[in-house]
Every structure is written in C-alpha cells, then in structure tokens.
Amino acid sequence: MTYKLSRLMSTATAGYGVFALVQPAHLGKAVEAPSSEIGAWEVLARTYAVRDLAISSFGMFGRSGRTVRTAMKLRILNDVGDGLVLAARTSDPDVRQKVLAVTMGWAALNTVALVVDSRRNDDD
Q: What tens digit of pLDDT does each residue of 77-123 get?
C-alpha cells in the first residue's frame, strides 16, 4: 500500500494550501475580481487553504489505502465544485475558461493518480 502518485498529488495540493495562506490575494487576481471584492476572495482563498491542508494531510500521511483513497475522492470532488462555483462567479469568458482549465485539470490529474494507484494497490 504505497499510493505514491496520490501522495504526490496530496503534497502538491498542500503546497497550494500554504501558498494560499501566504498569498491569499492570488485568487481574486486570478479571477480578475474588482478591487472592492478582493477581501472576500482572500477569505475564500484562506478557506480553500485550510480545507486543502486538512484533506492533503490524510492523503500524504494516511496509513491505509482506504484513507488515501477517501482523501483523493474528496480532493477531486472539491476541485470540480470549486471550478463550477468560481466559473459561475465570473462574467468574462476568458477568465471562466482559465478557472475551469485549472480546476478541472487538477481534478483530472488527481483522478489519474487515484486510478493508477488503485490498480497498483488493489490488494488492500
């Protein structure tokens, strides 16, 4: 039971969580939010950070395959949900496309990691 790719993706997501805590303004800038809304986007970025760090800790340090798989499934669902919510909040089609590319791309990478790892570790 190693789940190497899933643990790698969890580590990368934790890295994003740390970045979001240190630079919470990045999210508002990425969605090109008006300056009057930046504070709200910073709160959202910090919320994502705490959530991502919590889930990633289970993905990185979980002792059982079940724990790692559950963390990965939560990660994938959160990425898809984030994409849908963020895309709905922007009226600019280019920004919407960028948001969906990042969030759905991350969901896809996590899905590939989980599928590959699950096949390699189907004994637990």
A: 999 999 999 999 888 999 999 999 999 999 999 999 999 999 998 75
pTM to 2 decimals? 0.91
Asked if residues 109 and 10 have their Cβ atoms less than 8 Å apart, the reply is: no
Do 12 and 75 contact (CB within 8 A), yes or no?
no
Q: 95 is written with which tokens?
A: 């920004």
Structure tokens at 58: 């289970």
* C-alpha 29: how far from chain center: 18
Angle at 61 between CA 60 and CA 63, to 5 degrees: 125
Structure tokens given for 10 = 């969890």
